Amino acid sequence: MSDHSPSVQSGSASTASAATQQAVQEGRVWLGLELGSTRIKAVLIDDRGEVAGNGAFDWENAMVDGIWTYDLDHLWEGVQTCFAELCGDVRKRTGEQLRSLAGLGVSAMMHGYLAFDEDEQLLVPFRTWRNTFTTTASALLSERFGLNIPLRWSVSHLMHAALQNEEHVDRVRFLTTLAGYVHWQLSGRKVLGVGDASGMFPVDAQTGQYDAERLDLFDRMGDVSAYSWRLRDLLPEILTAGEDAGRLTDEGALLLDPSGGLRAGSLMAPPEGDAGTGMVATNSIRPGTGNVSAGTSAFAMVVLDDALATARKEIDIVATPSGDPVAMIHTNNCTGDLNAWVGVFRRFAELLDGSVDSTGLYHLLFTEGMTAPADAADILVYNYMSGEHQTNVPAGRPLMVRGQGSELSLASFMRAQLYGAFGALASGMRVLLTEEQVRLDRMFAHGGIFLTAGVAQQVLADAIGASVAVGETAGEGGAWGMAVLAAFAHARTEGVADAQSLERFLDERVFADFPLVTVDPDPEGAAGYSAWLDRYRAGLSVERLAAEVL
Fold first, then answer.
1. What pLDDT, on a 0 to 100 scale, did the predictor assign at position 2?
2. What is the pLDDT of residue 179?
3. For every residue of 156-196, which 3-state class applies, written as one string?
């Protein structure tokens, strides 16, 4: 799903503290690797959560034979480049060569479809969360299960392949997510963290395992009952945060570092989806807390007190890395169109011999946007690079629409772009908070869009009508959260007192002195966004028509 920092460049490396330098020297560091939609990112932390180095690799999905996919050879090129860049950053910060890790973990965009045969060979190219052709399968499963089964879930993709009588289906012997696949290659273990697993197939909140009753129901469905497998035999083993998920093998160490400099044997944490690592990165894993992760796609997670009374197609039910139920509002689109427009302005600045850097340009444009009227001067922006299930739009066509009397200015255009980035998300949050009356005490936000202080953060607070907090790791996102999960797993195996639960570990070890900046909804801004969202929802038929005729 989302890449948490697509709209900014990594900051320049700073000199690490003496304690961090010693931690690298002694191998008391933890690596978080996250494969986002547009960027692979690696973050190394010490036992205080301080960043000792980072690396990144930009990549893009491609439409191949009508399917959004990533090439797995390109994946490993990206992982190796990202890790090499991290090692270089560690040397720059600490003067030390990274040779060993206390632990590591892998996170990735959630769900999709990676199917392997009995020889562990990939049967069809990786089908990502971005594909929306599973509509019939998703609807069928949702009706049979009495739960909302989203388009991107692995079981929806499997059912779609079965409904299409795809030749490979009978030969499937293992299904996993992208995080599960990379973890498997590094450790040899076919496991998955409960948060990511809850997007492959529904998880029973009481047992923390796949819902046994619905597994049986799936296997009895006429569309799949004739196959030679049972679904429970295809899925990865579920682990919760803190459990031992294996060790980095010799082969895995070479996959990360082909030079041979990295030692094998490091403890691996259960692999998670970017939703789970986002919850960790924002310390929002207790009931009543929530987080928003904004990148190419976006999602809002709210940890529930109790199960929802009704199944809603706008709301996915997933789990925290500890297994607690979570309501998730997921959107396929967030910053992609916004970033493209910033690229247009960047090129214009270059033609004028401007020297503004990327971070500075975002700051200028975002700040200008906040000078516009609170309703964005009646300018509507649909940022749909791809179809948007949250608003029932089957195919994406980025679109700007304004009334005849609307005043088009740079400020109103940029405010509309910021509003549009959260439009589908805000629509889903209305259902969750207003119609379903879910409790939300605090919302944390992370992702590159929040690095311009106070702008996107204020827009989001106005959009959802709740306070929004942003911390120093806003741009580090899920890779940092995955590194924290790796540190937690290591602490659990060592019997550390504050690692008895993930909640306690985060409160007492990671976030005890964590600086946060919180903004409340602005009454004028909230009223303006609400009016804008009403027009946005009313105009969705125009966006749907655009896909039909363009």
1. 38
2. 97
3. HHHHHHHHCCCHHHHHCCEEECHHHHHHHHHHCCCEEEHHH
Phi (first) and psi of residue 350, to 5 degrees: -65, -40
Determine how many CB atoms are found less than 10 A away from the CB of residue 100. 18
CA distance 158 to 485: 30
Q: Domain residue spans in the chain?
A: 336-421+524-549
Range name among 38-42, 145-149, 227-231, 476-480 with the lowest pLDDT average? 476-480
Q: What is the value of pTM for the model shown?
A: 0.81
| Cβ(180)–Cβ(236) below 8 Å | yes
The answer to whether 204 touches 212, Cβ cutoff 8 Å, is yes
Cα–Cα distance between 79 and 31 in angstroms, integer?
A: 13
Q: What is the DSSP string of 194-214?
A: HHHHTTTS-B-TTTSSB-HHH
Dist. CA 153–CA 145, nearest whole Å: 14
pLDDT tens sequence across 393-407? 999 999 999 988 888
**Which tokens belong to 259?**
């030079």
Q: What is the dihedral of CA 470, 473, 474, 478, to 10 degrees?
A: -120
Which tens digit of pLDDT belongs to each residue from 11-63?
344 677 888 899 999 999 999 999 998 899 999 999 888 899 999 999 989 99
Question: How crowded is residue 269: how many other Cβ atoms within 10 Å of its Cβ?
Answer: 33
- Other CB atoms within a 10 A radius of the CB of residue 265 amount to 11
Q: For the chain, give the mean pLDDT.
A: 91
- DSSP lists the bridge partners of residue 301 as 291, 328
Which residues, 6 or more positions from 372, have their beta carbon under 8 angstroms from its beta carbon? 409, 411, 412, 414, 415, 416
Contact status, residue 334 vs residue 383, Cβ threshold 8 Å: yes
- H or E stretch at 108: strand 103-108
Burial 386-408 (b: 16+ CB within 10 A, else e): bbbbbbebeebbbbbbbeeebee
Q: Distance from CA of residue 540 to its chain's centroid?
A: 25
Distance CA 449, CA 259 (A): 35
Distance CA 419, CA 428 (A): 14
Sort 309 into a burial class: Cβ within 10 Å, 0-12 / 13-18 / 19+. Answer: exposed
Task: Give the Å distances, CA to CA, from 78 to 128, 185, 427, 500.
Answer: 17, 15, 35, 35
Residue 411, number of CB atoms within 10 A of its CB: 19
| Residue 442 neighbours by CB distance under 10 Å | 18
Task: Tell me if 419 sits within 8 A of 382, measured CB to CB.
Answer: no
Residue 377 binned pLDDT confidence (cut-offs 50, 70, 90):
very high
Q: What are phi and psi of 293, to 5 degrees?
A: -115, 120
* pLDDT surpassing 50 at residue 3: no
- The CA distances from residue 330 to 110, 129, 492, in Å, are 11, 11, 32
Q: Distance (Å, rounded) from C-alpha 232 to C-alpha 228? A: 12
